[in-house]
Amino acid sequence: MSKLVIVGTVAFDAIETPFGKTDKILGGAATFIGLAASQFDIDMSIVSVVGGDFPKEYLDLLEKKNIDISGVEVVKDGKTFFWSGRYHNDMNTRDTLATELNVLADFNPVVPEDYKDAEYVMLGNLHPLVQLGVMEQMTHKPKLVVLDTMNFWMDNALEDLHKVISKVDVITINDEEARQLTGEYSLVVAAKKIHEMGPAYVVIKKGEHGALLFHDDNVFYAPALPLEEVFDPTGAGDTFAGGFIGYLARTDNVSFENMKNAVVFGSALASFCVEKFGTERMKDLNDPEVLKRLQQFKNLTQFEIELT
Fold it and tell me: By residue range, what is the domain housing residue 42?
């Protein structure tokens, strides 16, 4: 069985959308990635940090999903990372109302000994130096390292970001971030420039418009499933990433053809995430629901045409 290491935030979110608002609820990149990857039969561990205010029931939930949490540091006298945001009516744009780093400000990741030889590593959105710190602890070169990042690090830690980008196999970013990172409007040209920075594979997420996978001169596109209602987009990108690397770790196949399937799995799981606030939908997701959703994706894209 393949091993997967996930590094990222385990946090509190407070969210407001046109459909309502929440108080502090479970959130964080590593949380969403882990819950998505838990749909697959893999051995995985989360590396993160929380404060003494983090409820034990949330840690119990991760363990119940067969996620090793020995790499989650609990700072008893500290406070957990907190983010609050308000989404606009189009659900594609949002305002950040509060960001409190708290224990994350001094976070030094420690990969559990049993996972330092993991074949798969998912570097969730964190400071690039923290992501590099995880890679340096690995005792063997992983089969696949996937990096997720955001425009904040492009604005504030670009040199460090370039260092970590040069060492990974796959980068997952959204279209706006791809354009900012490269200075190119065309996503095809942007992907080529990112290839030159190091990653062999580039995944560009386009939210409600699906995702693109680039490798050399090959391009694959997976649409997003049209949904009647989107309650909360928070964590959808991380859920996509968790489904993507979770599928690859389970199948232990990192070919471009298999990555196409991984992109579809990631898109399918992300489509569940947005149906409820925070992690609510992902907590109790079951296999029959996932299979049904995958069939919907297949029906959405399958067609026959005569080419004369």
Answer: 3-301
d(CA 80, CA 75): 9
Number of domains present in the structure of the chain: 1
The verdict on pTM exceeding 0.85 is yes
- CA–CA distance, 222 with 225 (Å, rounded to integer): 9
Tell me whether residue 306 is in a domain: no
Radius of gyration of the chain (CA): 18
Angle, in degrees to the nearest 10, between helices 158-165 and 128-137: 30
In a domain, 211, yes or no: yes
The CATH number of the domain holding residue 145 is: 3.40.1190.20
Q: For the segment 49-65, what is each residue's pLDDT rounded down to a tens digit? A: 999 999 999 999 999 99
Give the C-alpha separation, 162 to 166, whole Å. Answer: 6
Distance CA 115, CA 87 (A): 37
User: 13 and 84 in contact (C-beta within 8 Å)?
Assistant: yes
Q: How far apart are CA 113 and CA 19, in angstroms?
A: 44
Longest dimension (CA), the chain: 71
pLDDT of 3-43, one tens digit each? Answer: 999 999 999 999 999 888 999 999 999 999 999 999 998 99
Sign of the C-alpha dihedral computed for residues 277, 177, 10 and 224 taken in this order: positive
